[in-house]
Specification:
The complex is a heterodimer. Chain A is mostly helical. Chain A has a domain of about 190 residues: Orthogonal Bundle (MetI-like fold), CATH 1.10.3720.10. Chain A is built from 15 helices and 2 strands. In chain A, helix 4 packs across helix 9. Chain A is flat, with a radius of gyration of 24 Å. Helix content of chain B is about 45%, strand content about 10%. In chain B, the strands form 4 sheets. In chain B, strands 1-3-2-4-11 form a 5-stranded mixed beta sheet, sandwiched between helices. In chain B, helix 2 crosses helix 4 and helix 13 crosses helix 14. Classes of the chains: A mainly alpha, B alpha/beta.
Chain lengths: ~300, ~500
């Protein structure tokens, strides 16, 4: 009876309902997080592990491959944010306006890539960007009268391939975020702006952009994380974790290489911790700059 | 009352949904798939070989998709037998073991075994295996371990794995020693049973060579790399066409370098107890020779890095290269990806730097292990050695999987080596095993130890690109490689 009382009391009910989340959060997030931090100070061996202090971190400082991976991830994050916010926003505004016919078709076309597996699309892109003369891009180059290019062996051409794959996949998803943001903007605002004689550009600048800010911040935050933690796209594009001169190696790729391919979990954990810290710092700066960390005004 | 009921139902559903993730059942789905070898065998032989070559990553690509679900689960054998679990990353391997298990149970009525075979994606399986060995629970009785993962799994020596030395005693004398050595632990005990030799041989496109006026006798006369280079120059001069080369050199694989090391008797890993030294004359000679080939137009850089990728197959199909060294398991690539090439290709031993050197090296492979967690490790080991080392088993390995079997007693047996119903014997101009017989005491081994992944990776991502694409000085590139390797040892 006491148990029933406990179960049905209004005080405990919220905790009971929140329990599944809290439990899974603790087991699958907090515990691994702490465990990874602990492991980053260890040398994890097959039979036994030993404490090595800051050895793993000291090694990271000297590790040129890790520096390359950091630079690659950072560049990718920067470029993907630069592409994946303005363009989806533009498409969303177009979809929301009367300028576009057959919106359903366009939306579906933009969204469908997100439904395909990266494994499949990555393989297709790898074949498209093959350095061999039958690769699609090289066929186009030949048609244009240009010489064939070793796309995935040169830093900047491979960056193009990666960003193309990324945009192809995520434009539709980000567009949907912006569309839902646009739907929540009160139409009366536009009407009153019309009455005041505002142009399309002015309406976009003074109504759409400010009111879309929460959505933009959300998209920016997840794009930063997604950019920094990109792995699968590069893994598929080079058919593995090894790219010529490490031009496609990302931080997570390096973590995978160390942790899984070389079974050096301690070092991999140090890589992971560094990635987490960088991700947190960048996002905190970003959130502080656009004012999201301030207390909500009453 | 209704509210209470609803609340109770809701919370039950929630608890159930939380717990649902915990249980995982691997229910056997019957043994039908075990019979399904005809098609799968050739298909998966290719998959195996891809995985077998540690520098070939297209197989491990599947790892990234991280499917936790097994692709096939089969149980074979009587319920009364000792029950065991076996994992592999290639379904055809499991089909092969299942066939061998039926034979074992027929021959050993008092030692019956029932095995549940599970096929996982490459990366997934090795990860699960290492995790279960590390935690001491959940490991299968028997498990395939791919060459590239051998250092990770064998690191646990006899705490994790059951030595096969006793079980393989009946077959040991006939087995190729260098292949057994590749699957030894740092304590010198045998932990893995090999599938194939992976002997490196030279593949020649005789149709194109003959069209350029080069005969089989010319090819047979090639003894040294100098002869090979001369023949290459002759071919290039005869063909005199842009985009046609004698061979292609790899930026994404170390096969050429392994071959060079084996010829000089070197090993850049330094073995289990040595330190790695990559600044070897053998490696330098090979790289310098390849640079000169690129300069003179004898060779091109393999499209996409090596011949074992789509672009590599296409390059061969287009007749852009007419010869290359590759392990025997590459034969399955011809069957699977280049069937039109049937009858055109000829296999010989590889050239050497100086006469009298060994001319081959074993590349890739699968070292199957018995774990200490097994319900009956001795029985598991006996079965494993029977399946992979006995003449019966080796015959099936050749017929089903198309591998160059490690049991040398069979190589000279005409019923085995000259079986004209075998698709590999039909495909090539000569019998592959005739070549093997010619070189059987010349197949070197490069050890795969803890430092190996580091060396291979740095070589394939950086050093080979610097040397072959950017024309960097060989000594400088190898010095850089040595520095990277030294950081890890």
């Amino acid at each position: 009876m006491k148990f029933r009382k406990f179960l049905y009391s209004e005080k405990t009910a919220p905790y009971v309902f929140a329990l599944p989340f809290i439990l899974s959060f603790c087991i699958f997030w907090i515990y691994p997080l702490i465990s990874a931090i602990v492991m980053s100070f260890q040398d994890i061996g097959a039979i036994s592990s030993e404490w090595v202090g800051f050895h793993n971190y000291a090694k990271l400082l000297k590790d040129n491959v890790f520096h390359t991976a950091m630079l690659n991830s950072f560049e990718y994050m920067l470029f993907s944010c630069m592409l994946l916010i303005p363009f989806p926003m533009l498409f969303a505004v177009l979809m929301d306006s009367n300028l576009v016919k057959a919106k359903g078709v366009w939306k579906a076309m933009l969204y469908v890539p997100a439904l395909t597996s990266v494994v499949i699309s990555g393989t297709l892109f790898r074949l498209m960007f093959s350095e061999y003369k039958t690769g699609q891009m090289n066929v186009i180059m030949t048609m244009l009268g240009l010489s064939t290019v070793k796309w995935l062996k040169i830093k900047w051409t491979s960056e193009i391939a990666l960003l193309l794959l990324c945009c192809w996949r995520w434009t539709g998803v980000n567009m949907l975020y912006f569309l839902s943001g646009l739907k929540s903007i009160d139409k009366e605002l536009y009407e009153s702006a019309d009455m005041d004689g505002a142009s399309f550009g002015q309406k976009f600048r003074f109504i759409t952009l400010p009111l879309l800010k929460p959505t933009t911040i959300y998209v920016l935050t997840i794009s930063i994380y997604a950019g920094l933690s990109m792995f699968l796209e590069s893994y598929m594009l080079w058919a593995g974790n090894s790219s010529p001169n490490n031009i496609g190696l990302t931080i997570v790729g390096y973590l995978y290489k160390r942790g899984i391919e070389k079974n050096d979990m301690g070092y991999a954990c140090a890589v992971g911790v560094v990635l987490m810290v960088i991700g947190l710092i960048i996002n905190f700066i970003q959130l502080a700059l656009n004012g999201s960390l301030k207390k909500e005004e009453e | 009352m209704k509210k209470k009921l609803l609340a109770a139902l809701l919370s039950t559903a929630m608890v159930a949904s939380v717990l649902a993730g915990c249980g995982e059942t691997n229910a056997p789905v019957g043994s039908t798939e075990a019979e399904d070898t005809a098609v799968a065998a050739s298909d998966a032989a290719a998959t195996d070989a891809a995985a077998a070559d540690e520098t070939t990553a297209d197989d491990s690509a599947a790892a990234a998709s991280s499917e936790a679900e097994p692709t096939a689960v089969t149980t074979v054998g009587p319920d009364s037998g000792t029950h065991m679990e076996m994992w592999s990353f290639v379904e055809a391997h499991n089909s092969f073991y299942a066939g061998m298990l039926d034979k074992w149970n027929e021959e050993n009525p008092d030692r019956q075994i029932q095995i549940t075979f599970t096929t996982y994606p490459y990366g997934d399986m090795h990860q699960k295996l290492i995790m279960s060995l590390q935690t001491g629970t959940g490991a299968p009785d028997l498990c395939d371990v791919e060459m590239g993962q051998v250092p990770n799994v064998y690191e646990g020596v006899d705490t994790w794995l059951y030595p096969l030395d006793d079980a393989m005693a009946p077959y040991k004398a006939d087995m190729l020693q260098s292949r057994l050595d590749a699957y030894k632990g740092s304590d010198g005990k045998q932990y893995g049973a090999p599938f194939h030799v992976g002997a490196t041989v030279m593949y020649w496109n005789m149709e194109d060579l003959e069209a350029a006026g080069i005969t089989k006798d010319d090819v047979d006369a090639v003894e040294t790399w100098d002869d090979y280079t001369a023949l290459g120059e002759k071919y290039i001069a005869a063909v005199n066409q842009d985009g046609k080369y004698f061979t292609s050199v790899d930026t994404g694989g170390t096969d050429w370098l392994w071959l060079a090391m084996a010829e000089y008797g070197d090993d850049w890993t330094g073995g289990y107890h040595g330190t790695a030294n990559v600044q070897l004359d053998s490696v330098k000679n090979m790289l310098k020779m390849q640079q000169s080939w690129l300069d003179s137009g004898v060779a091109e850089v393999s499209p996409d890095g090596h011949v074992d990728l789509e672009a590599g197959f296409q390059n061969i199909l287009d007749g852009n290269i007419v010869s290359f060294p590759k392990a025997m398991w590459y034969m399955s690539r011809f069957i699977n990806y280049m069937p039109d090439e049937k009858g055109k290709w000829y296999i010989t031993k590889c050239p050497v730097f100086e006469e009298g050197q060994n001319c081959s090296v074993g590349i890739g492979g699968t070292g199957t292990v018995v774990t200490q967690q097994s319900s009956d490790p001795a029985l598991a080991a006996d079965f494993l050695c029977y399946a992979k080392m006995s003449p019966e088993g080796e015959t099936e390995i050749w017929n089903q999987l198309g591998f160059d079997a490690c049991n040398t007693s069979l190589w000279s047996d005409p019923a085995f080596a000259h079986d004209d119903t075998n698709q590999y014997n039909q495909f090539f101009q000569n019998y592959p095993y005739d070549v093997l017989n010619e070189i059987n005491d010349q197949i070197g081994t490069i050890m795969t130890v803890k430092i190996s992944p580091t060396i291979n990776e740095y070589t394939c991502t950086t050093t080979l690109n610097e040397v072959l694409e950017d024309k960097m000085n060989v000594d400088d590139a190898l010095k850089e490689l040595q520095d990277a390797v030294d950081m890890e040892q």
